Amino acid sequence: MALSKDTRLRLNDGNLMPIIGLGTYAAADVAKSVSEEATKIAIDLGYRHIDCAYIYGNEVEIGRAINSKISDGTVKREEIFYTGKLWCTFFPPELVRKGLEKSLKDLQLESLDLFIMHWPFAIKAMEEINEYIHPSLYDNVDFCATWEALEACKDAGLVKSIGVSNFNHRQLDRLLNKPGLKYKPVCNQVECHLT
């Protein structure tokens, strides 16, 4: 049974987002199959918002879970709201679409419902995925240039909504006051623990 449609909110671009979602981050020592199974169970329980990220390293498994639940008739694709995150190594504008297309391929999806910049800074390309970043790896890419590439992905129909994550007030102001801003971010996703 799905959660009530009243549990969605309208984003500033008109799209609806379920307010309760499953975050799929799992520590490196947790088998990726656990994320896949948790996603299937969450969909069975009524979750319709799935949040994942390239850096989590489990997009293939999450995509398999979503497609399994679509194939078995539990949900239709349009009932799932998928949030993905652009990892910092893909922030150079010429790499943004490549990063998105990699995620789409791994997820076996044609488009994302929400695509957000994971952090407000770029890092240099690394041989392997690593979420722990030494300061020497920071790259000099302006997040406003990355944002313009995200706007192009939205225009191309690859994502429905675009947003940011972990931005502070100054960074948001800078983006919102950027000359030529085409789309405002629909969200600033930040980590918050209620305990």
Give your account of this protein's structure.
By secondary structure, this protein is α/β, with parallel strands linked by helices. The chain has a single domain (5-189), classed as NADP-dependent oxidoreductase domain (TIM Barrel, Alpha-Beta Barrel), CATH 3.20.20.100. Helices cover 32% and strands 18% of the residues. It has five helices and ten strands. It has helices spanning 32-45, 59-71, 93-107, 143-155, 169-176, and strands at residues 8-10, 16-18, 22-23, 49-51, 81-86, 112-117, 122-123, 138-139, 159-165, 188-189. The strands form three sheets. Strands 3-4-5-6-9-10 form a six-stranded parallel β-sheet, covered by helices on one side. A two-stranded antiparallel ribbon has the order 1-2. Helix 3 (93-107) links the parallel strand 5 and strand 6 (112-117). It is globular and about 45 Å long. The two termini are 29 Å apart. The model has no long low-confidence stretch (mean pLDDT 92).
